Amino acid sequence: MESPDSSQNSRESGYSFKSVITRMRSSAADGEVNHVINIMEGKGDRLASMHQKISKPPRLLRMVAGRSSCCIFRVPESLVDVNDKAYQPRIVSIGPYHRGKPQLRMIEEHKWRYLGVLLKRMKEKGLELEDFFRAIQSLELKARECYSETIQLGSDEFVEMMVLDGCFIIELFRKVGNLVPFEPDDPILSMIWILPFFYRDFVRLENQIPFFLLQCLFDLSKMPGDKPSQSLSMLALEFFNNAMLRPDEVIARYHDLKGQHLLDLVRASYIPSDQDLEPCRVHAPTQMIHPVSKLRRAGIKLNPGKADSFLVVKFRHGVIEMPPITIDDFMGSLLLNCVAFEQCHGSRTNHFTDYATLLDCLVNTSKDVEYLCESNIIENCFGSEGEVTRFINDIGKDTAFDINNCYLSKLFRDVHQYYRNSWHVQWASFKHTYFETPWSFISALAALILLLLTIAQTFFTIYPIYRPDKS
Questions:
Q1: Quick one: which H or E segment has residue 294?
Q2: In whole angstroms, what is the distance from residue 381 CA to residue 371 CA?
Q3: 3-class SS at 191?
Q4: Confidence band for 431, pLDDT divided at 50, 70 and 90
């Protein structure tokens, strides 16, 4: 028989064991509750983070990028991968995208020098740096809306950059245009390699400031003795014409031309008027045309046109008329950046993209480039025929092109239909085979003479046998 003490101890042990189990269950329940609480807290943090991201506007490609007022873009990475150096400034930074890069510091120092020279001249008008700062400050918000990317600069820093870059451009235009003198021994003039880089850097899409800011600074810095007829557009086009080499009378036509920035201004000066273009009435689907070598075998000729802009391309009576174009470093930069601008700006026409696509269709090998050069359609100041071929084939890579909705649609259709005409192809193939070179012509002529002599010999050999007997 158990003693009362042992019975008591047994009950106490049972109670202890139950309490341990109860505590364990309580701890497990508390752990589950804490785990649920932690999950809910983690979920709440995640949801808060998601809501924060939803409410945060895009920064790298802002919503204003879809507006017609937005005109300065980052070049799409797909185009940069093909021609990365064509979009990067080499000597001078204009605007915020390439500001502060070490390789561009040299000209950054000369910007301040040019600003000082301009302000000395402005003392005659009673204007100071503060007047320029206030004028641009009133346009700050409008200027920021021109950039597709959020500019991470404070108000004062942004306005300072616009005043500095804008005054430098205008002062350089005036100096190159001989409206104000260069300082003695100015290295920007005396070192002949610098100005050509300015021509190219000023037409890079990522290296722009809004044209209305330049116009504001230009109007503010006019002197009483300046010619009233000397517009900013005219001054800018004359500056770039040192690289474009277009006739003065052509440049003079664009005295009142406006652009959204300098690249757009130069681009707009090449866009032909409606009367220079053939009417585009294409209702059936259009197809791409063949390269020069195949077109020639089909009897299609390519001759230099006589229009003021190389964009005015026409097709008449089996002849493609293309105004001459000089392909050099400046034109290469202009073509690529105009195509990039048209790809980004939805409200602009795509003349340069269409023209680049036409060139890409026409040029397949260096032989095609050689023929275009011999025909005085391309003036090659770029490099070898192979280098020009690669450049032309790269212009249209990874670009959006609508063949049925471009200014060259009718030309594409007409050339393709002419090419499919079998009579044209057969006759052209015959001429290409037997009359392309003097030697092929001589060989064909000799073969023809030999054939005639063989026929004559055969005739006089057989004729006596079957000749009727006169007796």
A1: helix 292-297
A2: 15
A3: coil
A4: low
